[in-house]
Amino acid sequence: MKIYADNAATTKMSRAALDAMIPCLEEQYGNPSSLYSFGQRAKEALELARQDVAAVIKASPKEITFTSGGSEADNQALRSAAALGKKNGKTHIISTAFEHHAILHTLKALEKEGFEVTLLPVHENGIVRVDELEAAIRDDTCLVSVMFANNEIGTIQPIREIGAVCRAHGILFHTDAVQAVPHLPIDVETDNIDLLSSSAHKFHGPKGVGFLYARKGVRLTNLIEGGAQERGKRAGTENVPGIVGMAAALKDTAAHMEADTAHLIPLRDRLIAGLREIPHSALNGDEKQRLPGNVNFCFEGIEGESLLLLLDDRGICASSGSACTSGSLDPSHVLLAIGRVHDVAHGSLRLTLGEDATEEEVDYMIQNVKEVVSYLRGFSPVWRDLESGKTPHIL
Ligand SMILES: *Cc1c(COP(=O)(O)O)cnc(C)c1O
């Protein structure tokens, strides 16, 4: 059996996205900035895509800027809000300890430029507490950035409540919604969101394209200087096929969000229940307030990389955390943020189901993870010490 269970890292392109893109590559290849009708047709396709994207999050088309993906949208959102804050003498930013590196590394850069950053804890359940966020707000706070749903442990944050607190204090609110759009219902009006980042390849669109929503009146800072594309806020000839593909994927995925959620939750819970039978294991993140397809476990006495390689031999594509940090030996900053100690955080496994996942696949994954964990523990010195009582079990 071949199972792709790493949909938080990237997804397969949908038929809808491919069908929308091919004509843009084969025939309608004009430059949207050209004045002749051939170019203007590309411009029209671009603006239709903008309308479709805006509609899914209940924004207006003028509030959507196309980017090269989630990372660029995150960078532009933070830099824009920081620049606006600085103009008003406000240089304090609040975020969380378990954001994506596109956020954390941009915040590090802003710190070097004189901003002060408070990273909120996310607790054992992987959820930010609104009262703690409100307590961290200062007179000079210009921005709050909290991700909609975490990419490793899938926990969903109280976005609407956080947005309301920010609104009440007159502070801009950004959310990295790359894992949430369009897998969860999002309405930038009722959710009180000022800035939102999204990426096409996380919802069956192409790689290298995404968008940034910025509420009307929130002035964006340019990351790339050049031509007047995207109202002068993002120079460079637009990635028309990518943008058109993104809009098609977004519309298509959003159209069956409810059905997909209803299909995925029982499968996710079946997978969680099955993996829980493994002794000295623990689910990471809140059990219910998590993305419909996300399962993330720690197993004691296991080295995550070995687990992944052996699962790969059995046809299962999984992850130990985020694709960006695998390859490095540091344990996931997300697992450390929810209080897992280094040794335990090293033995992590993330399985993220696609909408076409089946019960048979889930059972195959449970069976194989059980076998591989027990096989690896069989010759692990760490496990021997745990079992002999030389070191105490944590899980
Ligand atoms: C994937 C991801 C990103 C980065 O998106 P890219 O389009 O790959 O740059 C940012 N934030 C989160 C939460 C993600 O999951």
Keywords:
395 residues; alpha/beta; seven-stranded mixed beta sheet; three-stranded antiparallel beta sheet; 13 helices; 12 strands; 42% helix; globular; binds pyridoxal-5'-phosphate
* Fraction in helix: 40-55%
Q: Spans of 5+ residues with little confidence (pLDDT < 50)?
A: none
* Hetero ligands: pyridoxal-5'-phosphate
Backbone structural class: alpha/beta
Average predicted local confidence, pLDDT: 96
Number of strands: 12
Q: Largest sheet at a glance?
A: 7 strands, mixed
| Head-to-tail CA distance between termini | 31 Å
Total count of helical runs of at least 4 residues: 13
Strand order in the largest sheet: 2-8-7-6-5-3-4
Looking at the structure, what is the overall shape? globular
Percentage beta strand: 5-15%
- The run of helices and strands is EHHEHEHEHEHEEEHHEEHEHHEHH
Rg over alpha carbons: 22 Å
Quick take:
The protein has 395 residues and is α/β, with parallel strands linked by helices. 42% of the residues lie in helices and 13% in strands.
